[in-house]
Predict the 3D structure of the following.
Amino acid sequence: MTDNDFDRYVGMYRSSVTRAALCILRDAEEAEDIAQEVFLRLYTYTGCFDGDEHVRAWLLRCASNLSIDALRSSRRRNTVSLSEIGEKAAPDSGDDTVMPAVLTLPPKLRIAIYLRYYEGYSVQETAAILKISQSAVKQRLKSGREKLKALIKGEIEDDI
């Protein structure tokens, strides 16, 4: 397959492949990832096709199979988005202002705060999970607490 043929197929079928994956996965970002994987497989495919309709059918079948595989994967079953964590963790925290504030932190600070205070991991365990030093975890926790304090204090002053 030439690069021109590949570009033409991507242009013609990208939205169809993405929609097929979206229909199965119900997650736009994951559907985009599946579409990229499908077109990567098309690019490396060494067989031949009987025409554009055969390519379209092959792409949609590939998207369907990869989407179903993604649904079956343990990674997908054992993960939760941070927004869902926030919804679950906020009522337990006793204060509805903390978790939304945590979710606004930069990712490095957010994950350290979450692992330490919401999941209850020690600094040593958090360091092992994140594959960083204990001093780096302590610094991220300190920075995160300072930012949270400023965020929450700002919200309280705004309410007054």
